[in-house]
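Ticket #4471: structure export looks truncated?
Reporter: QA, pipeline team
Priority: medium

Steps to reproduce: submit the single chain below to the structure queue and open the exported record.
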Amino acid sequence: MTNAQIAAAFDEIADILEFQGANPFRVRAYRNASRTLGDFGESIEALVHEGRDLTEIQGIGEDLAGKIETLVKTGSLPQLVDLRAQVPKTVLALMRIPGLGPKKAAALYRELSIKDLDMLKAACEAHKVRELKGFGEKTEETILKGLSLAAESQKRIYWAAADEYAQALLKHMRQCKGIEQMEVGGSYRRGKDTVGDLDLLVVSSDVAAVMDRFGAFSGVAEVLARGETKMVVRLDTGLQVDLRVVPAESFGAALQYFTGSKQHNIVLRGRAKDRGLKVSEWGVFRGEKYIGGRTEEEVYKLLDLPWIPPELREARQEFEWAESGQIPELIEVADIQGDLHMHTNQTDGAATLEEMVEAAKKRGLKYIAITDHSKRVTMANGLDGARLRRQWAEIDKLNDRVKGIKVLKGVEVDILEKGGLDLADDVLAEADWVVASLHYGQNQPREKITKRLLGALENPHVSAIGHPTGRLLERRSGYDVDLDAVFAAAKEHKKILELNANPARLDLDDVACAAAKEHGIPIVISTDAHSTQGLETIRYGVLQARRAGLTKEDVVNTRPWSGVMRLIGRK
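Actual output as written to the record:
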């Protein structure tokens, strides 16, 4: 059982409890546990089998530890079974529609007996939803617009979750001695923020042994097909995994073909045709004659191109770069020197200030900014000016005794619904680093949202805008904002825009990060960590940055802190 599966179970408990109107602190405990387990760097299943004390994991008490052990050892959790019996699973999909929270979803279920997205669409089209108290015509229109997002969210998973399955599958398959080469392709290899399925490519002379081993993978719920060279299974989570066994001479061509993207491959086939060649998953051919395809490098070379990193294969600029010899040297995780967005247990984090610092130091970071929430975020016990200054005094003392890492006095200040920030300028002026974020009023009109962000960018004490579009993958579209205006203001006021590495956010997305680069706006990749394990998520942000074609020079926190200070105009 993967960490992602365990985290998903706790998230589902939180969903149902929230739907039922349970105590918000109880709901938050499960949400925090899900986030902690999803970010955890080690296999939870392995810890359980080793008899390790799970309460050593930050934020996991005895009750949650017991439930984790039950889930790992039995594959089920009685509490979740009971909750599922109380609320149809299809009803929970209603909560994934932007603007439709648990209270309204419960009202639809209770008042109109709506149990799934199809029933909800029919009710909206019949104008029955607008008649309910607290809804209205505008809410009905918002629901209709969000239905496609909710439907899609049931088909795709975060890249981070797909990575767990992919790594577990590769580890399992490596025990098969007949495998000579093996890679996972598809959108997973290209690093897309969400993944619909996994494509496993294998070279082996013993196809039967490979397929037998594949079918024995933990979590396989059903074998959908098994042929001479291809086998398809569905995992118990619903994720489909396709296995293809290919000849060694075709492995590079197959890996290139099944990595995609479709648009990239269309351009590649066009180049082949222009040169009197044909390229497919079997290789590169001149007429009927095979001329190459053992490696991806060979495929690209035959088409007069250098090898193109998988993350760039979206038919955007990669061919232009390749032809001119200007493929960017993409950023690596090792390039990151600091992390400038994280939380402690003084607001909604799971770890103490000291624990976050120690964990960051172990990761080899040279500096971090502690950016707990400001007072507007009441659900997170946000800090007012007095509490924030007390925290900063603690940081000063900590810097006196901790060597090898610089701890910066920061804050994630809220951009108010009416505009402006929820902490006074004299407080913000004392900070080393200020992240301004928009958490409330996300359904405001485009002009209002944009004006709020522009106001924050104009503030001389703001360093960066956090998760600039507010999207939550597969759960909430970003708010309606004029990004061109935001880019222009960021450039004018010499501000930084964040790529939030939380796998549920990855905000800015790859396209927006590439646009920011074109505008000359630096990006900061931050974890937004709420636990020590959350610091590990930096790699998801780096992967997104690679898809945008970013180099280390495009990302501010690849610099030492002195370099960042110069960039934001601090002495």
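Status: closed, not a bug. The export was complete when the record was re-opened. Leaving a note from the reviewer for reference: The mean pLDDT is 92.
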